[in-house]
Design brief:
Pfam families: DUF502 (PF04367). It is built from 9 helices and 5 strands. The chain has 314 residues and is of the alpha+beta class. The longest helix is centred in the first third of the chain and has 43 residues.
Length: 314
């Protein structure tokens, strides 16, 4: 009873907390910006000219004008000179480059190569999702002739790895960068829970257009990769404590395999096979939740799929 109450409370908390934190951060940015600029405006403007919100309007206008100026050749050169100066200052260089790279990654003006989502085959059925950031590798001429740079971030953007991978071993995924980034940051929440539902529904609500079939293929691909990634530490914010357990990795592999079956069935547009693969996904998810999340309600008992209690010990 207490586990059920605690589980319900936790699910409510996970729903409310992101909204609360987003609102808090937004209010903090607005009030801090307004508070800093208010002192300046009160000092330099005539009496009674200042009104609440003027600081935010000024900041937004300044950002917009800066964006316009950065499209001009002269301002670009000045900005490049300023950046070159920053990159010669110890510590400031490191912080500036990290922040600049992070925001540049989400910019709508990033180069085409930095906007590609890539899948790397690690062997033994394992795959890794990353982002191609450099296809020329001019800085690594000795090894970069047939390779590309693929950045693989860790959960919650706490770090990542840049891999130099042979072009022949990289598969480009037809997935938006923003969706892929949410995927690698919190695999279980952002990908698996979202991708499984359309596959289950397709068994009795058949897609009618090519666009709907392509979307379903994307969902199956995401679910397959999600099953692979949650078997490794640093990819699923909710499952880091279980990745060292063989039964957890077995469930993850089973989910990836079932998703691969679903993908093949979707490409063949075989509704019966989609239904069979969907049932296997359901059994895998419920069996895993039964084994690792005891307060999660399941629709049935899958004794033949559940690991022994002894296998769950550290």
């Amino acid at each position: 009873m207490m586990k059920s109450i605690a589980g319900t409370f936790f699910r409510g908390l996970t729903g409310v907390l992101p909204i609360a934190l987003t609102l808090w951060l937004t209010v903090w940015v607005i009030t801090t910006t307004e508070g800093l600029l208010r002192k300046l405006f009160v000092y330099i403007l005539p009496d009674n000219f200042y009104f609440p919100g003027l600081g935010i309007l000024f900041a937004l206008g300044l950002i917009f004008v800066t964006g316009l100026l950065m499209q001009m050749f002269v301002f670009k050169k000045l900005w490049e000179w300023f950046e070159a100066w920053l990159e010669r200052v110890p510590l400031v260089k490191t912080v500036y480059q990290s922040v600049n790279d992070f925001f540049g990654f989400f910019s709508s003006n990033v180069s085409e190569s930095a906007s590609k989502v890539a899948c790397i085959d690690l062997g033994n059925g394992a795959q890794l999702v990353g982002f191609i950031t450099d296809e020329s590798l001019e800085a690594f001429a000795d090894v970069g002739r047939d390779r590309v740079a693929v950045y693989v971030p860790m959960s919650y953007q706490i770090g990542g790895y840049t891999l130099l991978v042979r072009k022949a071993e990289v598969e480009i995924l037809d997935i938006p960068v923003e969706q892929a980034m949410r995927f690698v940051l919190t695999v279980m929440v952002a990908l698996i829970n979202d991708a499984a539902d359309p596959i289950w529904v397709a068994a009795w609500h058949t897609p009618e257009t090519d666009a709907e079939w392509r979307l379903l293929e994307h969902r199956a691909t995401q679910l397959q990769l999600g099953g692979t990634l949650i078997a490794y530490p640093g990819t699923g914010g909710l499952d880091h404590k279980w990745t060292a357990k063989p039964p957890w990795r077995a469930w993850a592999t089973q989910l990836s395999d079932a998703s691969a079956e679903a993908l093949a069935a979707i490409k063949a547009r075989n509704i019966e096979a989609i239904s069979t693969a969907g049932d296997r996904i359901v059994e895998t998810c419920e069996g895993c939740h039964q084994a690792f999340k005891m307060d999660f309600p399941t629709g049935g008992q899958y004794g033949e799929l559940s690991p022994n209690a002894a296998d769950l010990e550290d």
